[in-house]
Amino acid sequence: MKQIIAVCFCFAVLAGCASNPPGMGNSGSGQPYLGYTSDPINRFAAMNGIRSWESISDEYLVMRTTRNKAYLVKVWMCPKLPYARSVQVISAMPSTVRRSDKIVADGDSCMIREIRQIDVLKLKADQAASTGK
After folding, report:
1. CA dist., res. 81 & res. 34, Å (int)
2. What is the structure's pLDDT at 30?
3. What is the DSSP letter of 37?
4. What is the distance of C-alpha 4 from the center of its chain?
5. Among 3, 10, 37, 96, whose Cα sits 20 to 30 Å from the Cα of 63?
6. Per-residue pLDDT averaged across 27-32, rounded?
7. 60-66 and 52-55 strand pairing
8. Burial class (CB in 10 A: 0-12, 13-18, 19+), 66
9. pLDDT top residue among 127 and 60
10. Are 60 and 24 in contact (CB under 8 A)?
11. Is residue 28 within 8 Å of residue 20, measured between CB atoms?
């Protein structure tokens, strides 16, 4: 029980601004990020929790653990995700997000299907190049 409470505390309800990074648009899928992602991974460490999150569609969200570490997370259909004001990670392992974990978006419980790490530095470099900065 203490472990579950600790996990819930570590992944406390993540309230934040769910907006797209400049130039990424909201295509309704993870497509804009797929050119910057790794092959699917089974889990990622979130030692200090999730820094921020961004809903992309009812199947995709981006979770950031540090300024330069982000993950494209695909979930089973989650109707409230695009409009969620908060998300919560329900994880069996403290400080770790795994494929078998769940995301709760405004009360909707959604199983994680796939996780891919985003190459944030390449994404930022390409965005800067496209805007001429």
Report:
1. 19
2. 65
3. B
4. 21
5. 3
6. 62
7. antiparallel
8. exposed
9. 60
10. no
11. no
According to DSSP, the residues that pair with 66 across neighbouring strands are: 69
Structure tokens at 55: 């809903």
3-state SS assignment for residue 43:
strand
Domain count, the chain: 1
Strand partners, 43: 98
Q: What is the DSSP code (8-state) at residue 127?
A: H
DSSP secondary structure code for residue 73 in this structure: E
Question: Which amino acid belongs to residue 127?
Answer: Q
Task: Tell me how far apart the alpha carbons of residues 121 and 106 are, in angstroms, rounded to a whole number.
Answer: 31
Q: What is the largest CA-CA distance in the chain?
A: 52
Range 55-72 average pLDDT:
94
- What DSSP state is assigned to residue 68? T
Query: Is the torsion defined by CA of 87, 115, 96, 2 positive or negative?
Result: positive
Residue 128, both tokens: 């800067």
Asked if pLDDT for residue 72 goes beyond 50, the answer is: yes
| pLDDT number for residue 24 | 38
Whether 132 shows a pLDDT value over 80: the answer reads no
